[in-house]
Structures are given as C-alpha cells and as structure tokens.
Amino acid sequence: MFVCLFVCLFATNQPINQPTNKNRAKNVIMFLGDGMGLPTVAATRVYRQQGINPAEKKNYLFWESFPNLGLARTYNVDHSTPDSAGTATAYLSGIKANLGTIGVTEYVQFKKCSNMTGNRVESIVHKSIKEGKSTGIVTTTRITHASPAGCYASTPCRDWEDRVPDDATDCTDIAQQLILDDRNKDIKVILGGGLKYFLPDSYSNSTPPKVNGTRKDGKNLIQSWESYQTNQSRSYKLVFNKQALATVDAKNTDYLLGLFNADHMSFDADRSTTDEPSLADMTSKAIEILKKNDKGYFLFVEGCGKIDHAHHNTNAYRALIDTLAFEKAIESAYNNTSPDDTLILVTADHSHVFSFGGYGLFEESVLGYASSVEPSLDGMPYLQMAYSNGPGYKVRRNLTGNNKDAMDKDFVQETAVWLAYETHGGEDVPVYASGPWSHLFRSTEEQNYVAHVMMYASCVGDYTTKEHCVATANNGAGQTHSFWAVSVIILSNFFYFLEKF
C-alpha cells in the first residue's frame, strides 16, 4: 500500500501543496474548445497515447497539467441543453441568456428584436478596452459565428450574421456590428473565417480565399475597416492567407484583420498548409501584437470551433485531430507568457452526446472496433466511440468490423437515434486554469462565473477597485481574497434559477 501511495502521489504533474497566485492578472487568455467535453478530452488523450507520433507519447494533454480545475454548468436560461450563443454570453459577459441569443439579457427572446433597448450587455472585451487593455479574437470558425460573436455583438439571433429581417429595426447584423460599432473599433486583432459576410453580393474573387460576397446592402465592410484605420493614422495589416500572416511585423502593427476562408476555416485534418494558418499560427501572432501594451490584454481563442462541427457530423476523427491542433496553440501561448501575470483558461461552451467505451485494448485504436470482452447481443462488431444521436445511425450496424474503414477520416460513428445533425450534450464542462487567481476554479459553478473570475483577476468591469487591483497598480503583487469575494457579487443573478432548475 505504501508503494502504491508513493507512486500515485509522485506520478502527478502537480506539487502536493500547490501555492495560490493572487497577483493582478495583467493578461487573460481564454481558450474555448467548442463542444470539447470530457469524453473528447479523454478520447484525444488515448489517441495520442496510441501513437499518432510515437516520439511524443504523453499520458496527458498539455492543459491537463494546469494546477487548477473546476466544472461549469452550461444550461441556457430557457434550455437545459445549451447552444454556443447563450453560453458565449455567459462566459464572456457574466450573465445567463436564452438559446440562440448573443450579448443580451434573458429578457430578449430568440429572434425577437423588440426588446433590445436596455438589454444589451458588455463583454469582457469591451470592459478590457475601457481599462486601456488590448484585445483580440481568434477562431477557426467564421468570425461572426456564435462563440467569437459573443466577444463583441448583441443580437437576438445568432444566424443574423450578414443581414437582419426587414422588421428588425432595432437590430444590426453581426458582421456590421464588428466593423462599424464604436465599441468594437479598438479591438486590435481579429483572425478567423467568414469573409463572405463582409463583402457585397456583387463581389467575387477566384483566388484563395475564393469568395462570393453575400451582403444584400451593398456594403464592403473590409473597405470600411481599412478606411477607418487609415483615417485614424493607425499602423495596421489586412491579410488573407498564411504567408501574409507570417510576414506581419508585430512590432510595427497595432491592428490586424485576417480572414482566411469565405466560410468557416478548414478542419485541421483538411487544412491547406500553404493557404490557411493553423490555430497556433494565429494565436502566436495575436500575442506578439497584443503584448506590446504595458496595461496588458485579453485574448479569446476559439480553438477549435471545428471540434463542434466534426461532432455534429458524428465524425470523431476530425474532432480528435482538431483537439490536438487546439493543444498546440495552448502550449505555444503558455510558453510565450508567464503564469505570474497571465491567467490562461481552457474550457468548453458545451459538450456533445459523444462517448467511448467497450473495453478496447490499448493496442486497438480508439477509432476502431472494441474487443470481444463484452460482445454485442446481435453478434455485430461495435465501435469504441459512438454518439447518442446523429447521421451515423443508418449504416453503422451493417459493417463487418473492418478497421480500415474506421480509420478513414470521413468515417462516421454509429448512433442510437437517427438525426440529420448530432446534438449538444447537457452535462457540465471542465475549466482548466493557470496563473493569477486560477485557484478560484476548484468547484462546480455556473458558467457565467467564468466571466466574473476573468474580470476579477484582471481588474476590469465591476472589479477595478478591489484590493488586489489598487495595491498592484504598479508592482503586480497580490492581496488575499477569498473564493466568495467573486461569488457573493454575482449570487443575485442565480436566485431565480433555484426554482427553475
């Protein structure tokens, strides 16, 4: 027993007595793995162990070595299983919202524009800008998609990316908000996909990124952004491919807009390494630019939003590969910052109805079929990874156990219920944390608690006069505050949920 205890204690990546860091967080980087629930983390870890690169075998993913870990309850106000819009409002603005809505309170219903006045909310991006910090947004989805839009937009409908209905007179499309709203004009780094939503439908370009504009109002928002930078005498760059991004001189560039695909960027398994930058490429360039600000920065990195897309297609292979690409970006960011003054969070907005099991042997790829420890009652082989619902229902049980098929990147896993599109999961998601005040993530909390911890640690929004903020304005040394200092402030937001859930 003593030997077992000794091995268990010292096999961990963490010291037994982990100190708390109560410094002011000069910088905050939030990494959002869209749809990256714990089954995705575990399956990716096993996939790595099984030898995607034998020279790099590890028994954990990089962020699993972070010293603090909590759980976030993800439900929207009106749905027990959430979407990426309502959750983005929670973890970026600090309040729970309805499914499909972004940057608004619960009093705004999906697709209802009539109640927007007085119900728009500010995100941590806006609050960081007010304190003189630099801000950036990086994603592999369309920059106007639900998660990144949570940084800057207020809308009753996540789908209004390039237009709004004629009767939505108090609403503006998401792309237009990003470029033309005054509160967003100081966002310094914007990198992702979705170029088509910024160009008029008369615009067409046949060179990468190939794009046909979709805007019906005739506006060219790319030109609008560039004209504004010029009129403000700013140093800026506008880029559309990997090479152009790589050549950006961060020392002489304060504002950067890069859109690398007409729609979402490619899955990492399919990405053209000459045309599209990797998530790590974009994250590194963003940090190079943002770190020039002595007051610090807030950076949101959705990496990869394509994890979510792969799961919706019940295509586990692409989900795992994008999770590994996510890991590279996180490791790069961690190695180019200091945990003394940079709070890094890794979390998900929601999970998926994805699981893996079946008592597979380690020498059997997690992508393939399970061993016969627990044979199926119909005598058919079954996969180690599966989904509760989705498009894989019809054909999977007709297979004969050919692992070659299961290794194909286009292979879709079997499902119990036949749907055209797999759904999200409703369970809690992990929050991995490193850096100042990361010890506040050691419990199960509401998802909007995440936003308040980031604001509290970095002294923005309602937290500018907290002791550690005032005392560390010059030297960065922290004062002691309890976990409850944050919880009490936001507790009022949750009272009515006690009856609801």
UniProtKB/TrEMBL annotation:
SUPFAM superfamilies: Alkaline phosphatase-like. One of its GO terms (molecular function) is alkaline phosphatase activity. Keywords: Cell membrane, Glycoprotein, GPI-anchor, Hydrolase, Lipoprotein, Magnesium, Membrane, Metal-binding, Phosphoprotein, Signal, Zinc. It holds the Pfam family Alk_phosphatase. It is an enzyme of class 3 (hydrolase). Residues 1-15 form the signal peptide. It is found in: Cell membrane. It is a lipid-anchor; GPI-anchor. Zn(2+) 2 binds at residues 34, 308, 312, 350, 424. Gene3D superfamilies: Alkaline Phosphatase, subunit A. The active site is at residue 84. Zn(2+) 1 binds at residue 349. Its EC number is 3.1.3.1. Its cofactor is Zn(2+); Mg(2+). Mg(2+) binds at residues 34, 145, 147, 302. Binds 2 Zn(2+) ions. GO terms for cellular component: plasma membrane; side of membrane. Belongs to the alkaline phosphatase family. This is alkaline phosphatase. The lineage of its organism: Eukaryota, Metazoa, Spiralia, Lophotrochozoa, Annelida.
